[in-house]
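Dear colleagues,

As part of the handover before I leave the project, I'm documenting each prediction I ran so the next person doesn't have to rerun anything. This entry is a single chain, and its sequence is reproduced below.
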Amino acid sequence: MKIQLRYFAALREALGPGETLELAAPATVAQVRDLLIARGGAHASALARGRAVRAALDQAMVTEAVELSDGVELAFFPPVTGG
């Protein structure tokens, strides 16, 4: 299956705006994050398991246990604070 990845805020600065990723189904958000971490380099440091990273699937917040389907947009971004 093919999914569209998007990165926002500091992740966008480190990894760029996004990319298309082809992977075997079924796959979860956690599996995609681990796959990206396994690339090493900027992906490993920006998405490391010790870092707070949020995920949205087709613009709705999700947990990493959510299963993906073909054609979805998966976005990763740091937690947002405001005031």
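The chain has one domain: 2-77. The chain has a mean pLDDT of 94.

All the best with the project,
I.
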